[in-house]
Amino acid sequence: MKKYFIFLFLFACTENKTGSLLSPVDFDSQYKATQGAILLDVRTVEEVNAGALAGAINIVYDDAFAEKLGNLEHKPIFVYCGSGIRSAKAAAILKEKGYDSVYEMDGGMKAWKAAGLPVQ
């Protein structure tokens, strides 16, 4: 019984509550396979100028993030940041605003680059 309790506790504590957390490779392939999806970069302008994913739109994550979403279409959204912290917060806000399909890149741009994937 204790083994099952520990497993369930660990699973519940590590479950991603905002959407799907994907490795950079899975994030890339699922984004490319999802017609009409939005690729959302929530990093600062300086970070974006140092390199971004092709086709990404940038809405900087800050205290006014929810208001900045404005008329962002309710389509599947693939969100990333530098390391995964801001994108997790942004994904939570997106879910609160009614976006159903929100996918996060695990580890952000650091993990993307470590995987050898292309940066624009």
Whole-angstrom Rg: 15 Å
Name the structural class: alpha/beta
If helices are DSSP runs of H or I spanning 4 or more residues, what is the number of helices?
6
CATH architecture: 3-Layer(aba) Sandwich
Query: Which word captures the global form?
Result: globular
What count of structural domains?
Answer: 1
Strand order of the largest sheet: 1-5-4-2-3
Helical percent range?
Answer: 40-55%
Tell me about this structure:
It is a single chain. By secondary structure, the protein is of the alpha/beta class. The chain has one domain: Rhodanese-like domain (Oxidized Rhodanese, domain 1, 3-Layer(aba) Sandwich). It is 42% helix and 14% strand. A five-stranded parallel beta sheet has the order 1-5-4-2-3. The longest helix has 13 residues, at 2-14. The model is unreliable at 4-18 (pLDDT under 50).
Task: Please outline the helices and strands.
Layout: H1 2-14, E1 20-22, H2 24-33, E2 38-41, H3 45-49, E3 57-58, H4 65-68, E4 77-80, H5 85-96, E5 102-105, H6 108-114
Parallel strand pairs: 1-5, 2-3, 2-4, 4-5
In brief:
The chain is an alpha/beta fold.
Key terms:
6 helices, globular, 120 residues, alpha/beta, 5 strands
